[in-house]
Design a protein that fits this description.
By secondary structure, the protein is mainly β. The chain has no helices and 9 strands.
Length: about 100
């Protein structure tokens, strides 16, 4: 199996790519020192507390390890420090915070 432009490798594991879009359930807020991504997952068939998050300089990847699939890719408007991810879950909404480069 070859990896195409529509596939993603997360933590060394190939997973199928699901979507990249302007999702109304995603808000990205950029401030001087950080980027906050708000994901409304109340209607998703996943438990937000079970998700894993990974980032590169331009994107945030939301990974469901139970199904072994990337469920969301969020394009970021500015570069971020990829290993600075912090997140919290409250009432089905995930807030992911990363430092800006």
């Amino acid at each position: 199996m070859s990896i195409s432009e529509f596939d993603v490798i997360i933590m060394g594991v190939w997973v199928p790519f699901i979507q990249v879009d302007n999702d109304p359930d995603v808000d990205v807020i950029v401030s001087d020192g950080e980027v906050n991504v708000y994901l409304d997952l109340r209607t998703a068939e996943v438990r937000a507390s079970d998700l894993m998050f990974k980032a590169d300089e331009h994107s945030l990847y939301v990974y469901d390890p139970r199904r072994k699939v990337v469920i969301k890719v969020v394009r970021l408007p500015v570069e971020v420090v990829s290993d600075s991810i912090q997140f919290q879950v409250r009432n089905g909404t995930v807030t992911v915070t990363m430092r800006r480069k």
